[in-house]
Amino acid sequence: APLHIPPILLLGPPGVGKTHYAMDLAEAMDLPIRVQSMENVQSPALFLGTERHWSTSAPGLVFEHVLLGDVANPIILADEIDKCKGAHYEPINAFHTLLESRTAAAVRDAGLDMPFDASLVFYIATANDLRAIPATIQTRFKIFSILPPTGAEALDLAQLVVTRALRSLEVTEFALPTRSLTRRLAHLTAREITRGVQDAVAAARAAGRRHLELWDFAADLLDDDGAHPARRLH
Length: 234
Prior knowledge:
Elements lengths: L7 E4 L6 H12 L3 E5 L7 H4 L12 H7 L7 E5 L14 H5 L2 H4 L2 E3 L4 E3 L5 E6 L7 H4 L3 E4 L6 H18 L9 H4 L7 H17 L28
Parallel strand pairs: 1-6, 1-7, 2-3, 3-6
Antiparallel strand pairs: 4-5
Helix pairs in contact: 7-9
């Protein structure tokens, strides 16, 4: 039988790596993942299809990924689920059906007017504010609170994020930064570090270097003012 994991909600401040974790989990489980930003979703039709009497009738993304995809248990990531707000219909209402195994086993796609089994889909949601999520939806998730790292954790995380950011840029023969440099970024979120490294690599390459110096980073990213006197202006 396929691995079944109950729906999980990753709750925490912006930039702590919630979405990144979900992507890594999908890779570890060797499953396809659909990342859906909930901020601009207008109705439940995105997940369960548009009614057939509309000229724009179409199946929903759950049908597409389960019946037209490669596996019956894909991962669907509802990113920033606390920010969705439809104009006329509440998009989040689709999860009342999709997150319950019994109802998901015979979920109906409105665009095709047919039931299908979506009970094996693995749902992950991320959120910053639990108060913006209806209680009826909260109870369907296993909630994990993701706290910002502190102390040695922050130092280790900074080193890891900087290293991964460099490798993702695929800049050939670019030296990894020293720990003394990365510790100056340890107070930032993973997202801020990644963006800072991308800009810093561009500055280093423009200067003809294949390694990072402290002054390659924007002034407002560093934890103190110990920057190079020839720092770029920002």
